[in-house]
Q: What sequence folds into this?
């Protein structure tokens, strides 16, 4: 015969066992949910940190960028590159997308140099400039410009491209070129050297400005932008012919006003995208202003002939 006390005892035990089982199961589920939530929070925090680092890199000038890469070399892991690619893919503006592409290219060069060349001697800006000028005989006592060898300038261009890929055409390099150019002008007894240094800056500017194209807006080709880009890429000696053939006052279909407008627009973009007061900003804007001055001279000459 089952007594009331036994029922109560049995019921209490069963109830306790059942309750204990539910608590254990619930605790396990709660632990799992908390772990997932914690992982998500950690992942979000890491993404925010990477985004902040990317923003810092984006707004850094070349010297600051190199310093940031050196100081944070271990941060450039797989997660960083995946996040940088994701940021690039979600850009609404083509300009911003190109900014990310250029940043990625610069970072890869810097990281590669640091990882693989830490034991190698880092060349000074003077060494880099000497290497660029070597094909045109800058080390010879008698400096002749244009160079006797017609392939010399092509070799200069190749050297500039190589040095750019190695990340050596930075603000320090431009400062060195400008310092030597200023000295050559003051000495006034080395016109050949002055012309060589001017050519270095022109080749640098043409290369830098040619990285971005504004000649297409969707499927539409903007003729004035396309025309400007053809002049930017061309050697200075070819500007006159290009302007005569491209402007309406000559043989072309772009009005002088249209050309001036896209030049001014490109100058504005350059001012926005380069550090204020930097040598890079000065070199690029002076190159564009040089194209406009040459265009104005050609227009005046052609207008005189048509009157």
A:
């Amino acid at each position: 015969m089952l007594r009331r006390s036994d029922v109560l005892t049995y019921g209490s035990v069963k109830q306790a066992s059942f309750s204990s089982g539910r608590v254990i199961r619930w605790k396990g589920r709660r632990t799992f949910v908390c772990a997932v939530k914690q992982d998500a929070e950690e992942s979000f925090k890491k993404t925010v940190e990477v985004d902040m680092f990317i923003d810092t890199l984006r707004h850094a000038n070349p010297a600051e960028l190199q310093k940031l890469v050196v100081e944070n070399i271990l941060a450039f892991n797989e997660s960083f590159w995946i996040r940088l690619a994701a940021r690039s893919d979600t850009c609404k503006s083509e300009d911003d997308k190109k900014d990310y592409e250029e940043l990625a290219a610069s970072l890869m060069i810097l990281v590669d140099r640091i990882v693989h060349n830490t034991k190698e001697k880092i060349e000074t800006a003077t060494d880099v400039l000497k290497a660029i000028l070597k094909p045109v005989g800058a080390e010879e006592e008698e400096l002749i410009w244009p160079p006797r060898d017609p392939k010399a300038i092509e070799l200069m261009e190749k050297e500039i491209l190589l040095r750019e890929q190695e990340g050596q055409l930075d603000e320090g390099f431009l400062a060195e070129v400008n310092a030597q150019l200023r000295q050559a002008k003051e000495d006034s007894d080395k016109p050949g050297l002055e012309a060589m240094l001017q050519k270095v800056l022109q080749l640098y500017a043409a290369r830098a400005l040619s990285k971005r194209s504004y000649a297409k807006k969707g499927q539409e080709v903007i003729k004035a932008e396309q025309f400007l880009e053809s002049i930017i890429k061309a050697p200075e000696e070819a500007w006159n012919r290009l302007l005569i053939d491209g402007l309406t006052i000559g043989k072309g279909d772009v009005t002088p006003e249209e050309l001036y407008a896209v030049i001014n627009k490109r100058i504005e973009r350059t001012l926005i995208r380069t550090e204020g007061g930097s040598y890079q900003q000065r070199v690029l804007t002076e190159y564009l202003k040089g194209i406009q001055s040459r265009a104005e001279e050609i227009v005046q000459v052609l207008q005189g002939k048509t009157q």
The beta strands are 216-217, 220-221.
